[in-house]
Records
---
Amino acid sequence: MILKNMRLIGADMNFASDNAGPAAPEIMDAVVRANHGYQSSYGADGVMQSVRNRIRERFEAPDAEIHLVATGTAANALCLACLCPPWGTVYCHRNSHVEEDECGAPEFYTGGAKLTLLEGAHARIDPAGLDAALRDAAPVGVHNVQKGALTLTNATENGAVYDTGQLRQLTELAAAHEIPVHVDGARFANAVAYLGCSPAELSWKAGVKALSLGGTKNGLLGVEAVVLFDPRHSWEFELRRKRGGHLFSKHRFLSAQMDAYLEGDLWLKLAGHANATARYLGEQISSCENTAILHPVEANMVFAEWPRRLHQAAYERGAGYYLWPHAQQLEGDPDKLLSARLVCNWSTTESEVDRFIEILRRN
Amino acid sequence: MILKNMRLIGADMNFASDNAGPAAPEIMDAVVRANHGYQSSYGADGVMQSVRNRIRERFEAPDAEIHLVATGTAANALCLACLCPPWGTVYCHRNSHVEEDECGAPEFYTGGAKLTLLEGAHARIDPAGLDAALRDAAPVGVHNVQKGALTLTNATENGAVYDTGQLRQLTELAAAHEIPVHVDGARFANAVAYLGCSPAELSWKAGVKALSLGGTKNGLLGVEAVVLFDPRHSWEFELRRKRGGHLFSKHRFLSAQMDAYLEGDLWLKLAGHANATARYLGEQISSCENTAILHPVEANMVFAEWPRRLHQAAYERGAGYYLWPHAQQLEGDPDKLLSARLVCNWSTTESEVDRFIEILRRN
Amino acid sequence: MILKNMRLIGADMNFASDNAGPAAPEIMDAVVRANHGYQSSYGADGVMQSVRNRIRERFEAPDAEIHLVATGTAANALCLACLCPPWGTVYCHRNSHVEEDECGAPEFYTGGAKLTLLEGAHARIDPAGLDAALRDAAPVGVHNVQKGALTLTNATENGAVYDTGQLRQLTELAAAHEIPVHVDGARFANAVAYLGCSPAELSWKAGVKALSLGGTKNGLLGVEAVVLFDPRHSWEFELRRKRGGHLFSKHRFLSAQMDAYLEGDLWLKLAGHANATARYLGEQISSCENTAILHPVEANMVFAEWPRRLHQAAYERGAGYYLWPHAQQLEGDPDKLLSARLVCNWSTTESEVDRFIEILRRN
Amino acid sequence: MILKNMRLIGADMNFASDNAGPAAPEIMDAVVRANHGYQSSYGADGVMQSVRNRIRERFEAPDAEIHLVATGTAANALCLACLCPPWGTVYCHRNSHVEEDECGAPEFYTGGAKLTLLEGAHARIDPAGLDAALRDAAPVGVHNVQKGALTLTNATENGAVYDTGQLRQLTELAAAHEIPVHVDGARFANAVAYLGCSPAELSWKAGVKALSLGGTKNGLLGVEAVVLFDPRHSWEFELRRKRGGHLFSKHRFLSAQMDAYLEGDLWLKLAGHANATARYLGEQISSCENTAILHPVEANMVFAEWPRRLHQAAYERGAGYYLWPHAQQLEGDPDKLLSARLVCNWSTTESEVDRFIEILRRN
């Protein structure tokens, strides 16, 4: 969505989205290297086996099945279709990507399941609300949709991270009601990097059955790995993927990206850098007058507010970011506080942050 | 699908599939160049406007709407979903990709439409059969599925090409029954290169409403352009694409491929080379003893048969291709004729063909 | 759903549901009369033409198209599928039948549309909430589901009635956002009978495009008429109905019921009686000690609360009705107020009410 | 579908369809009797338990689960949705009701499965053709739709009956490929009555997993029983039924019909009468000059041909039936043979047949 009131593409100071930035050089190199001779198509390429091995090892999950797709929406919707029947409901946060940014992909792929919207600060699902919703549905009859699956986003849409305790609180509620748990991990790397825990602790060891392991927002051209900790869904996933048009013939170009991403924990290095830069950005914003940080800066995003005239100045000087929520207007009372989302990615530099902060300070 | 009775990946002499080969260097260069700084995501990148302009100009279709997806199955299924209602039927050849190789993607994306299978030599739809099928459905009532759309593949799955006359015969029948026409153009470049006609003559000027313009089989990493000659379907297409998980955030990497593909008619050069190599391969096979060519070699594929012992020898020496149909066995009576499909791509060389033919001659 | 804590089937004092009661004798007579000789099937029976004429005349809508189905869920879901695309959202009340009691039928029939839940007292949609939701969706992009349709229930699930002014407030908001309006009229007869207005005033004259005109809850065996004030949806509706398995071969038995229902405004007489009995019941409950009426008694339902011991006494003496919401327990502190739903139908008598009230008074 | 070239509704001599005739008096009486006092809704009525018991006993299947719907299309499509995944294909006869007369209901309810069309005389599936189709699909990969289910119609659309041996031939093929078998038994009663076998022999004992046990074509107003011999599908069926809008609130009126239908084997008596009348009709037609019987007359339908002038005479004198196939024209060369379908139902009399035959003889 292109909004009139922003500049998305700056030579620098671009905090619009982690998917507006470039791919990491290690990734691009791997893609170029993969373009050599012949390779079996449709996922039978040799590199894909390496991807599987790396994920199984890194996640301490030797039985996990792994499949690649090119978009986060595909990863999420295909996972949910495997976990939730058409007559089920998917419990999710009101501000989750599956609800707000996928144009109904979960409904489409599941064959018409429902999404039950839950509240919670910082886009984390409030356990009490989940508990109430599940209890409310408890005496199931044929008249209502059935309890289907729980999906949560880690890191959240507001840049917060569920730690393993918070995660377990939710997965245990799901388990008590016998529904499986999916994690939208478009920024899973950022969550792991923030917590310093093992990927296993933040996934299957905490009761997660399926994970969309994001790459696109973290330096890939466009690949997400679906990690099925319950391998029984694997064949169904493959059929749904093919039927959804998401099986790549020249699959080697997906494998190559994911392989390089995992090699030497590049994924955590890239995410760690983005997190650190966001933290630095958040601290610097905090130190400016008339500003406030709106959500904990745990991953690679800063949600903050400051007076409108500073937004005007920042836009004028070429900074790129979204006013958040979008409905706010750039024109009007110069002292009114407007809120914004600023996203850092693997390539964002401290000096960009410094130049940006200077605008906030000098105006 | 990996079959036991073939070697797919040879250092050379690989005729398994046009999607087992590499991307063209011009394409890879463009991808690398695209990886610079920030770009608007989701198709709002600058290069996409160039793609639109190039296609509109090259197809003499200033009103056409163009959208990119990464797989042919997505392109086909999304087009058909825009053209055929859930209660309609799509007329197609029995051996078409939409029927045989998409795991029901058209049924999924249309919301449960039917495919009506037609016969015809060389995977070209027989006009008499289409006429009969449409007449048969003519006195439509509510009990039957309704006439929905016609889809045909050019070049066909058997490497034949519909010329403009043959194409018009079918589109006129469709027009008489008021159903729109889609072309699966996974090898459209090969068809245009073979005929030497203009892209417009082989599409909208001949009554085609929507075209899946293939790139992946012809030197791209994975991009297909959907060309909607009737722009009224454009917004619906965009929504279906997003909802299907086929809208790329880092869309610039798709745009870059398609832009380079169109620049200086690279697409036709690549396809022309593949066609010429296939023609040469076909001629050489014809000149061998005990061989027969099974379909006209018009695009980049040769369907031929020769004795089993020569297949065994070819496999042994590292040639890669599929026995076609797959059910044939590599072991058995050495003189039995087995049929095969051999596909050339932009990178296949005459010397590979020569080495391959030598095997057929010497054994 | 059969709950342990109620007696549904009493010889009398049964207020469980308007669909637990019998069919009206005029209706049953018509069904018996229809069982004579041969009739064209699938809606081509002669009586269906009479049904069409009666509805067009009574609704002052000569162009309306009318189709019959046997269940309210079918009527609602088929209407919504005609009005809302798969990528749209249906605005509805959080407690509406389409959300709570159809096991996802709207999602199924629309091909995966979403339901956006709105608040409002007495299960009437709050116009301010609708306005906000529509505005919130206003800057539509491809990432979100699109504004699809508005559906409201009249009389509501809480027995309240939208008058023509309240109705227009909502339909004007919908019109401003260019989305069509459907009315779930499972108890439309009760609403018209309550208001004393014309059916046209409460439907197309107030901006309604499609109406599920209920019969089953008001004395039929099982028939609902779908009234399409915009006849352009008619053929699509017919195809969706057939494809949904809702076109009856021996359709005459549906036609006969609806015809008798409309003849001499039987539908309004039956609903008027049920309304009057409910009003009487509500007044009588009000006059008892320790009771409260929870929603305006405008149609044929009373929502009220009184002490648990009186519920226990009522159940013991054979009264049938649901504690509402269902989660309440019949056992426990005898003075605690528990709420209940009591439904009157065309056959409920004042003497039943009197006997029931006596229980509340004497205990 | 109303065709110009037929008279559907005659005072007598109506052989148009078994669903154009009346309901049997025993059935109508049961409906009238059911209209007494209050009954639990949605299938919890007392009579439904009797229906379950009767079917379990009569089919010697104590574990079978039974559910009622009102149309054959609903029964078939809901069964197939439980048996075949969205990515599967349903093997069926080219002329089956699911393919030709349900406007894509199986595709809709399964979520986009495919139907694979098989040939076979008299609308019986040819075992060799099924075998070939299943073998052809055997080396399943992700590219093709998967083997889903087999459905066959008994008695067939051409009035032929599969005996238990013929049935087993097909079900054993299905079992060898591990796909379940559904029987469209819209005229199952006619098949059982013809063979004189037990219902169990013609269903679960022969490997059938799910049966649509028809009532509507055999004297009911509109009820079909779904008999799930594998009860594991039962809850899924109930959810799909509700979600499809096929769960009746005043379910007692469905139960009552099915209960009376089963009582004292009325179903077999009604079907036996229809079969006998058809046999008599067939014999009489055979004995006329210039006629031919086109399919074995085993159930309640006669397919035959005779000169056009006799069709003209029959229509003129008020006989009602379809020319079959429909495309034939009533006007033209008087001696040309035209084929017709004549259907007898429980109420067709020998004297009607005699009057009809007299027309064929006297003209």
---
Amino acid sequence: MMALEYDDDIIVIDAGLLFPEEDMPGVDLGIPDITYLVQNREKVRAILITHGHEDHIGALPFVLPELDVPVYASRLAHGLITVKLRERRLIRDARLNVVEPHSPFRLGRFHIEFFRVCHSIPDAMGIAITTPIGTVIHTGDFKIDHTPADGHSMDLAAIARLAGDGALLLCSDSTYAEVKGYTASEQVVGEALDRVISEAPGRVMIATFASLISRMQQVIDAAVRHNRKVTVVGRSMSNNVKMATNMGYLSAPPDTIVTMNEARRLPHDQVIIMATGSQGEPTSALVRIANGVHRDVEVEQGDTVVISASPIPGNEKTVAKTIDNLFRQGANVIYSRVATVHVHGHASQEELKTMLGLVNPRYFVPIHGERRHLVAHANLARSMGMPEEDIFVLEDGDVLALTPEEGVVVDKVAAGHVFVDGKTFWDMDSTVFAERRRLAREGIVVVAATLSTSTCEVLTDPEIVSYGFVELDESLELFEKTSKKVLTLLEEMGASVLTLDKARARVRDSISKFLHSETGRRPTVLTVIEYI
Amino acid sequence: MMALEYDDDIIVIDAGLLFPEEDMPGVDLGIPDITYLVQNREKVRAILITHGHEDHIGALPFVLPELDVPVYASRLAHGLITVKLRERRLIRDARLNVVEPHSPFRLGRFHIEFFRVCHSIPDAMGIAITTPIGTVIHTGDFKIDHTPADGHSMDLAAIARLAGDGALLLCSDSTYAEVKGYTASEQVVGEALDRVISEAPGRVMIATFASLISRMQQVIDAAVRHNRKVTVVGRSMSNNVKMATNMGYLSAPPDTIVTMNEARRLPHDQVIIMATGSQGEPTSALVRIANGVHRDVEVEQGDTVVISASPIPGNEKTVAKTIDNLFRQGANVIYSRVATVHVHGHASQEELKTMLGLVNPRYFVPIHGERRHLVAHANLARSMGMPEEDIFVLEDGDVLALTPEEGVVVDKVAAGHVFVDGKTFWDMDSTVFAERRRLAREGIVVVAATLSTSTCEVLTDPEIVSYGFVELDESLELFEKTSKKVLTLLEEMGASVLTLDKARARVRDSISKFLHSETGRRPTVLTVIEYI
């Protein structure tokens, strides 16, 4: 998410969500912290969406209730947003608008024109925003593919025209700025898939992202060429195939797409199964197939499985495990490390330089990607001769003020992310996450005792309960000893203990030490001491 | 770990440890399940060690107390094992032997000869084991580097001689069997490091594996060439530099290696800092530097940091975060994605085929690596014309019986791993891990109440304690409501409840539902109900 402000007008670009990280266990998702926008609510004119991926639209259900502004998006992104808002019963109040490339419109002091870019979802766009002091070119996510699967290559000439004699500012996708050369075209993938399908002796299962409509089109095209039918498993992919077909983003000759029941009646060498699970998601179709627990599909000798995706950072291990398990089931597995069955959707260094050259901006802000990607992108601009002081590697919340004369980071506002867990919103350094990490490492032991208020006598044997600490057979003897230890402790303290808090702390510390000496582990110890 | 058995003789090759995975939170490490070897204790003649990496020697402190057998290892591995056993006071009973390449010896019916291979630690070896029915060639971890940093290239002719007219069995490293072509030589890295150091305007910090002695030598050589001194931070690396220097694996002109205090007095462009932390280990020197909390080293403008390592699978995110933070601190960071400052130590496809061709085995068992790597390696052998029935992709525990006529998997014995957590050994599917994963996702709530045995009356307000579930400010009101809810529940149950277990279960279920409706989360609920 990024905001552009001029006088009394603010426009927002994208409203994506962050997928949770391991060090924030239990979190459902992260959404942008929009404190600044809420404080300046009356200035915000619109949210402009570059494309329909979750990390660009996923936060809208959380943002729109706070900011009642219109949303502008391409036709496909509009479709995906509609589904999302309908699920949460937010559609009635939403003001959604479809924009076409090169159909300019005005928002306050801003003049907006979307332009087409290539990316791993159809209808991806960049945005040219003309302000009173010059034009801002925001690329969105992009790569320069001259032979994309959907035939919509990037209109480089249009971008040059929008930038005019040089834009004020370029904000450009940095996700693959570390990678030399050019990103391969979707055409290469189409050819690889065609070869795999033509050579496969039996069924072919192909897993990819549910939003990668163009990949599905490539699969369908290859299916037709090689006399196969396609069946789709996995809810999100089935829904997207239906939606994309209805909206005209996916086309298949009649009877090419069949149900699982129909597919089952066909010879194996006439079947392609498209499935979700390319990221090793535990409940996905592919992972259930890999684990031999899918309701409809069981791997057989002669099956070929294609993982037409690469692992999103953090998913490497689950994807690898899925591949291993598919091999164990007897499939021949083809994945991006062994064949070009996937290319990603982001520009590499030569494409990024082409964009910089085309737009020829006064100022440059590399966007999208981690710090190292932004720095790599900044280095590219520097290598092209752009002055150091015109390049800004920003952190979330940095406020960059631009005039035709200079650019200065003038302020830092609340930004970053808030994390959604059930109905609660937490910030990154919530103690809850530290506690959960601790619980995961060592488990927990609860020590409960009841004392007499008058005599400080211990009224029953202290009770010990644990979770994630020991197995049952190990626990009986250990907990008996622990209970005795607590009893002794409390009796020793006797009337000398003045406050409940002190008694609790003393029991907790002693029992922690005791359990460590017995087991070599340090569970979290909670003490519950009641006085009656 | 692998065992070869002939009549009444068993020899074991390597005894490594497994680094814990995310889905087994809290585990210190995994060690091989040696049930079969313990059952056949009297047959085991020795453990042969191919090289000194943790995943080849790390389990010895756990294995040797169970199997009192001699260990044979190269000089460096011997040194590393000695340190390890001394730390655990196991050295006195250990029978450690140093072996040199091509100094054959006998163990029961086996005739053993070690041979030199290239890998990312000095003194790595493969083993030729001649049995009454033919020779087994076990490569250990290897790559074919004709220009290694330590000058010891692989003696391909010796391997051919050991294999004779064709070995009975080749067991060969599969870790990089997915990768086409050749693994680059260490020479390439030496050149890249030299260039980085010669061009760096200020200090250079270089992080690598503490066991990658040859890389340290390359750094020292470049330091000498460019008039820099080297200082080492991080305990494990300091220890290894000392050990390697004493044993002659590392050589530096006098005064090249200096203390941190001495380095501090030098101009920045005369300093190289070698550090641990190339895997983003939270307590390592590099990570503390990246987070700005290292005692001795603070990043300054002009510093260059080189990550001379690639992330071990699973560490991708922590390494990336470290790089991002170093950039934030103002360093110029150079890592394997942007320059050839690291090559790994395993053979790629063309080298693996060279090994297959050189040894020309009757049977082939791809070893080291996950299932997908073994399958890729098997495919290479197949592509070279080896018959399907002579290639065995095995799982841990598979017993392969070989005769000159045929190979058959005849049995499956207990194998796999056991996991060490403090003083306890757990197997993979222990309930403890499932409980910990659950705790990490949602935290825990403890409900404690004391009832009267005679009247079933609730004697105090039920107490609610939580961990990893809510923040303090959120908890007060919620827990007051929860306590009231428990009170009502218990009072309603009253005398009707017969058993403590039933009361507990009923409270647990109701409170789980209540907390979910209040917070949208599902913490683990533990109930402690005592009768007085």
